């Protein structure tokens, strides 16, 4: 990526997650197990999918006959969050495997160095 081009939101979220993992390792926390790293990567993918879906749902109008109102406004974000989690069940879209590999690589480098 060039210096003048802004980083996509997904890349920004990934970088924040990786920096957080690096910071927790530097503060003396015990190394994370591969299972906990996998779980964190899946949670990240779910959060990413929820964020993408929330932007999609912003333009969806509700049927005034059977929907709408304050209740739907209030619960839509929770519904979208659950949609994101469900989309990452099984293989997901591949983000979690890349995040997991990067987190394991960072942890490995920190243990060596």
Structural notes for this entry:
The chain is an all-alpha fold. The protein has one domain. The chain is 70% helix and 0% strand. The chain is elongated and about 60 Å long. The chain starts with 8 loop residues before the first helix and ends with a helix.
Topology:
Elements: H1 9-26, H2 34-57, H3 69-87, H4 95-112
**How many distinct folded domains?**
1
Q: Please provide the ordered H/E string of secondary-structure elements.
A: HHHH
User: What coarse outline follows from CA principal-axis ratios?
Assistant: elongated
Quaternary status:
single chain
Write down how many β-strands occur, each being a DSSP E stretch of 2 or more residues.
0
Q: Roughly how many Å is the radius of gyration?
A: 18 Å
Largest sheet features: none
Spans of at least 5 consecutive residues whose pLDDT stays below 50 are none
Task: Describe this structure in a few short sentences.
With 113 residues, this protein is mainly alpha-helical. The chain has helices at residues 9-26, 34-57, 69-87, 95-112. The protein has 4 helices and no strands.
Descriptors:
113 residues, mainly alpha
């Amino acid at each position: 990526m060039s210096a003048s081009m802004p980083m996509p939101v997904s890349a920004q979220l990934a970088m924040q997650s990786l920096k957080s993992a690096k910071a927790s390792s530097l503060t003396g926390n015990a190394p994370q197990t591969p299972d906990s790293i996998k779980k964190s990567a899946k949670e990240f993918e779910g959060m990413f999918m929820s964020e993408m879906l929330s932007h999609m749902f912003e333009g969806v109008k509700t049927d005034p006959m059977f929907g709408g109102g304050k209740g739907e406004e209030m619960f839509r974000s929770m519904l979208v969050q659950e949609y994101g989690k469900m989309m990452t069940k099984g293989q997901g879209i591949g983000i979690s495997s890349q995040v997991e590999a990067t987190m394991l690589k960072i942890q490995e480098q920190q243990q060596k160095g």
